[in-house]
Amino acid sequence: MYQEMFKEIKHLNSKDLTNLEKTNLKLEQIKKLNEAYLPICELFLKNYDIKDLSIKIQDSLRENYIIHLKSDNYNFLKKSTKFDFTINQSANITFDFYHKNLSSSSTSAELFKTLETLSYFLSKELYTIYLNENISQLKLIDNVTGLYNRKYLTQHLDKMLPLAKREKSTYAFLLIGIDRYKAVIDEFNYETGEKLLIALSKLLLKNVRNSDIVIKLERDEFLIVLPNIHNSQNAHLVANKLVSEFANFEFILNKEKNIILKKSICISITLYPEVADSIEDIYKHLDVALHEANNKGRSIVLEYTNSISSSIDLF
Asked: What percent of the chain has pLDDT over 90?
């Protein structure tokens, strides 16, 4: 099967192809990524005099999540040869070889190309193992921004809210919406809209604490959980900072023509357990307050109160 598939790759001889086929057959039986390192090492160490090997898988959809497969003796200071392969728009795999002969130009050219080709085909199988192992986790990830989604938030809140109530902690919830986001889609296209969402997601992550949680909800909406805040004033400080940062953010539509888009966001706030007492209350309060903020204008921060709820007409 592999002989036929790779027959056009002239720099792989029959032995190389046989080695690759045997390794791929082993990888097809493996379900956990850390178990895949051994057969790959066996391939390179036994057949190509590789002294050491490091493999990195980087996935930007999981906030630049990196898996590093390496031996206990791997030394980053050693001179090595790296091959980097782009799997898709969000993932890449890097093979880092240490080999005594790769520094010699007289012997390295053919070996270099062989290692590169073998690594390329193995990277495909490795990524399949990675996806299968993390499929349940990936269901909790928004596929545009790489942030956690509503499903993850619901699971997290089921555990987090009872703990917050027992410890008498205050949690603030911020709902963020891009002002007139639909106009971006109408004026440009969905791709531009998605790039704007990605830019906003990065800005949000940059301006909150590591302990805070940033969630991508539906369409243009994001939600931020601020655990253990002292009062609503702290939540307002964070919200106003985000509004100001995004208002000053220049979204480059066309670098060559210097076309720049500037947008704004509105943010609603509610507190748990002082105001909202359940997951349903949190979502309802945030939706109501954000709707009212949008009615008031752009770059508005509005905290939910009972007076808002009694005066607003959602429909």
From this structure: 31
- In this structure, what token pair is assigned to residue 161? 């809210």
Q: pLDDT tens digits, residue range 108-136?
A: 677 888 888 899 889 988 888 888 877 66
Q: Where are the domains of the chain?
A: 2-138, 150-311
What kind and span of H or E run contains 48?
none
The predicted pLDDT at position 243 comes to 96
State whether the Cα torsion 212-213-218-219 is positive or negative: positive
Range of lowest pLDDT (135-139, 199-203, 274-278, 310-314): 310-314
User: Which DSSP string corresponds to 197-251?
Assistant: HHHHHHHHHHTS-TTSEEEE-STTEEEEEE-S-SSHHHHHHHHHHHHHHHHT--E
Q: Is the dihedral of CA 294, 295, 297, 301 positive or negative?
A: negative
Separation in Å, CA 276 to CA 94, 158, 281, 305: 47, 14, 5, 10
**CATH number for the domain whose boundaries are 2-138:** 3.30.450.40
259: Cβ contacts below 8 Å, ≥ 6 apart: 252, 253
Homologous superfamily, domain 150-311: Reverse transcriptase/Diguanylate cyclase domain (3.30.70.270)
Tell me which H or E stretch contains 93.
strand 91-98
pLDDT on residue 22: 92
Quote the DSSP letter at residue 34.
Answer: G
Helix axes 279-296, 150-166, angle to 10 degrees: 110
pLDDT over threshold 50, residue 1: no
pTM: 0.60
What integer pLDDT is reported at residue 64 of this predicted model? 58
Round to whole Å and give the CA distance between 273 and 38: 50
Which residues share a beta bridge with 258? none
Among residues 74, 48, 69, 46, the alpha carbon closest in space to that of 58 is found at 69
d(CA 78, CA 75): 6
